[in-house]
Amino acid sequence: MSRAIMPPNSSPLSQEEWALRDTGPGKLLFTMYREQLCFLLLQDGRITAASFLPGESGRVGAVYIGKVKKVRTNINACFVEIADREICFLSLYKAKTPCLLNRSFDGRILEGDELLVQIEQEAQKTKQAAVTAHISIHNAYFVLALGNTRLHYSTKLSSERKEAISSLLTENALLQDGCLVQDIHVLAPSLEYQDQPLPPIGVVARTKLEHLTEKRIQDNVLEQFFCLAEEFCSLLCLARYRSCFSLVRKAPENREAAMTSIVSSLDIDTRCQEIITDQPEQYTWLLEYCQEHMPGTQVRLYQDSRLSLKTLYALDTRLDAALSSHVWLKSGAYLVIEPTEAMTVIDVNSGKCEVKADAEEAYFRINMEAATEVALQLRLRNLSGIIVVDFINMTGDNHINKMMSHLRTLVKRDPVITKVVDLTPLGLVEITRKKVNKPLHEQINRRRG
């Protein structure tokens, strides 16, 4: 086994430390990097997923009472003022079922309307912060949101588990004909604000419900639902007593954001056998979380004054590779990834790969390998919007169809909605990926730690 060169003045690694370095089975590191808490999933010697937690100034998820300043029907959007006279962008597609505070909703958003909005995306460069009027909050098992009142399910839930959740909510008078009962007395019986009407509220059953035993569903899930429902109803009722521009709900704290990142963004349930952290203050709740939600996953507290976790796993080198514009493939070919203001462009090059007599077959093998890497890089770098991939040109329809089918299969595994749109007449593959968080290069604090 080849071993990396150790830093100057460092002691040789022990057998245990070499075992720690083996990332083949999949290991999740939870550590500080450049003054930011981060999760890094390592597999086979490379980072395959990453999430950097926002600092205290992070506002995504915060709920404000805003005032509509301008409505622009030509772009089907409006501009909403929140605290500190900040103007935010609100698409009217995300305001079909708002919680208006100054009047009853009649299907229109008018200038001067006061409504609840939730920060969906922080301001970036010349773009204003984006908000939504479809307020939502969540816990490990459910999402409650303004809008469609039906019970929806994660696509990863089995039909048997969907039926069990539906039966549980129906038996407890929370669900009727597949829709959430719109009665504050039922959803939050302990609240004092019993006279308040509710805007339409829907519920989503999350992926975590799939991994629970029947006993856990009976003992714990209903309690989790009522806790979330009470919090959501309290938020909606409290807003009616607050002044315009008030902050009604702060953004989730780092701990909650961390757990959400692990579960939804990194999707580690099937890809991680061990979590390693060098943060003693976070170790206890990581351990408790895994015992409850990820039984079988080992949590290890790393403490070695001679060799930091960052050095042991060469995080600087691995993150530099994760952010490099060039990504080398095992065949000797490589990708060039260039984000622009409008889209991300990915170019596939044969590079050092030897192309012999059957060039068509060689290009097909390179493109299949490149498709696998493209799917990984979309998730690792958290690329979103329009992505255009320039694969090596192939003439055979059979090879083209196999490559496109392979790419579509790979992106279906992405927890973020990703769609392979089409192959253009110029041979470019168009992909779209939903914007959920900032791209990796924007998440990382550029100040050296």
Please sum up the structure shown:
The chain is an alpha+beta fold and 449 residues long. The chain is built from eleven helices and 23 strands.
Q: How would you describe the overall organization of this protein?
A:
The protein is of the alpha+beta class. The chain is 29% helix and 26% strand. It has eleven helices and 23 strands. The chain has helices at residues 15-21, 159-171, 184-187, 214-239, 254-265, 280-293, 309-312, 315-323, 359-380, 397-411, 440-443, and strands spanning 27-33, 36-43, 46-52, 63-72, 77-81, 87-91, 114-121, 130-132, 136-138, 142-146, 151-153, 175-176, 179-180, 201-205, 247-249, 274-277, 298-301, 326-328, 334-339, 344-349, 385-390, 418-423, 428-433. The strands form five sheets. The protein has a six-stranded mixed β-sheet with strand order 18-19-20-21-23-22, covered by helices on one side. The protein has a five-stranded mixed β-sheet with strand order 3-2-1-16-17, with helices on both faces. A five-stranded mixed β-barrel has the order 4-5-6-8-7. Helix 9 (359-380) runs parallel beside helix 10 (397-411). The longest helix is centred in the middle third of the chain and has 26 residues, at 214-239. The two termini are 31 Å apart.
Helix content: 25-40%
How many helical stretches? 11
Radius of gyration: 24 Å
Q: In total, how many beta strands?
A: 23
Map the helices and strands.
Elements (H helix, E strand, L loop, with lengths): L14 H7 L5 E7 L2 E8 L2 E7 L10 E10 L4 E5 L5 E5 L22 E8 L8 E3 L3 E3 L3 E5 L4 E3 L5 H13 L3 E2 L2 E2 L3 H4 L13 E5 L8 H26 L7 E3 L4 H12 L8 E4 L2 H14 L4 E4 L7 H4 L2 H9 L2 E3 L5 E6 L4 E6 L9 H22 L4 E6 L6 H15 L6 E6 L4 E6 L6 H4 L6
Parallel strand pairs: 1-16, 6-8, 11-14, 16-17, 20-21
Antiparallel strand pairs: 1-2, 2-3, 4-5, 4-7, 4-15, 5-6, 7-8, 9-10, 10-14, 12-13, 18-19, 19-20, 21-23, 22-23
Helix pairs in contact: 9-10
